[in-house]
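Title: Prediction job returns without error message
Component: structure pipeline
Severity: low
Priority: P3
Assignee: unassigned

Description:
Job completed but the reporter wants confirmation the result is attached to the right record. Sequence as submitted:
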Amino acid sequence: LALIFSGNANRHAPTATPQSGWKLVHGDVFRAPAFSPMLLSVLAGTGVQVFAMAMSTMTFALLGFLSPANRGGLLTALLLLFVFMGSFAGYYAARLYKLFGGKAWKKNTILTATLFPSVVCVIFFTLDVMLWYQGASTAVPFSTMCALILLWFGISLPLVLVGSYFGFKKEVFEVPVRTNIIPKTIPDQMWYTHPLFAIALGGILPFGAVCIELFFIMSALWLHQIYYVFGFLMIVLFILIATCAEITIVMCYFQLCNEDYQWWWRSFLSSGSAAIYLFLYAVWYFVSKLEITGFVSSAIYFGYMFIIALGFFLLTGAIGFFACFWFVRKIYGAIKVD
């Protein structure tokens, strides 16, 4: 915020020529990402869908519509809310893809509707086949699988199509500076500004914001305990949102000060890398707290935790990405350039 206010203070400065740091890359900062703009827009749009699902679920839980003792009801609510939030994914994925100058809008829409659900379905079906093979009573019936597929293709896919239609009809996101035709050469960077280091560092604080509460959630999932404190979980969710936004903005600012304008993917991955730490925490929890034996039981644990980590990756990545996008638009809107 201090950076933004200082930028606003310089709006009426006598010089209009950028002098140093982040101002030098004003002509490239909104250049489309070099690697797969479509995939980034799809992931960001799906992250918005997961975010809307999480906020809606927490709101219903706080209002008392979801009983903590009824885990089946909570899982059903998560699935239904994810399906009905498909229009958000289509809308934001379409608007971002249009900002990047993409033309294959049909492929973008289909990927938004199918990428994340396809991965989840493959993992879920593989685990269910293992349970069927063992004759376990916990295997999901074939009729339930058909109902899930019907929800996906009958409700989620059309909602994504509707959201994508309105997203492509909207005007392109307004950016405050023009993009140069010829890309600027990025100077040599120090080791601590390497993307892998920045991405690994960016996920520590978001994971630290939820790691304490994660222990109780894991106990409720795998040790048959009941989780009641949804009010506190909502506070933790707000802390997670603020932490993801702040760490990504700080990392992006340092990157731009080093005249590296390729911030699109790094802003998503910096906060999204918290999912790696979440999965590593799941491995530690499996080794130290659980007494699960057998290949199938272990595969079920790690399969479900991978799905949770993937959803967490999309959630935190989207928060960091859109916070960074807002920040970059603000600071470059506060300078005068020819």
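Comment from assignee: result matches the submitted record. The chain has a mean pLDDT of 85.
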